[in-house]
Specification:
Order of helices and strands: HEHHEHEEEE
CATH class: Alpha Beta
Strand order of the largest sheet: 1-3-4-5-6-2
Distance between the termini: 41 Å
Helix content: 25-40%
Strand content: 35-45%
Structural class: alpha/beta
Number of helices: 4
Oligomer: single chain
Mean pLDDT: 86
Largest sheet: 6 strands, mixed
Low-confidence stretches: 1-14, 17-21
Number of domains: 1
């Protein structure tokens, strides 16, 4: 009982809103889901192509605000490696508001985010919104697509 309350409190403090009442199993699954989401973001900024290959499948589609071209897994891996090769670092990553919608083995995560990076000694920060798709496949959450707004 105490664990359940702590888990709910953690989700509320993280700005997570779930769109329906959850069982203990669903709450644990959402915690794993949000950890997977965090892992994808941090792996991208760290240039961790091995982790990205495991969590971002070949059929991935990415749409980014302000960019005309859609991206796929190879583009995600390449852009991550390029960011890292330039000495890019993630200094701050926060998701002030997150809503999760469940549709069987597919979940949509709606979030606002704040991030700060450093490249070549120059810091930049921004905030925006992201819609992410996660699919439960082979015993893990995978991230086959997302769409970001232009930074605000």
């Amino acid at each position: 009982m105490i664990r359940r309350r702590i888990a709910v409190l953690m989700l509320l403090c993280a700005g997570v809103v779930v769109t329906h009442a959850q069982s203990p199993t669903e709450r644990q699954n959402d915690e794993a889901l949000l950890r997977a989401r965090e892992t994808v973001w941090r792996a991208w900024f760290a240039g961790d192509v091995k982790t990205l290959e495991q969590l971002v499948p070949p059929e991935t589609v990415v749409m980014s605000g302000g960019e005309n071209e859609w991206k796929h897994q190879a583009d995600v891996l390449r852009s991550s490696a390029e960011f890292h090769a330039k000495g890019g670092k993630l200094l701050r990553l926060e998701f002030p508001r997150t809503e999760v919608q469940h549709f069987g083995d597919v979940v949509i995560i709606w979030s606002s985010y704040v991030l700060e990076t450093e490249v070549d000694g120059k810091r930049s920060s921004g905030s925006s919104r992201v819609t992410e798709i996660f699919v439960w496949r082979n015993g893990r959450w995978m991230n086959p697509g997302w769409h970001t707004d232009n930074e605000r």
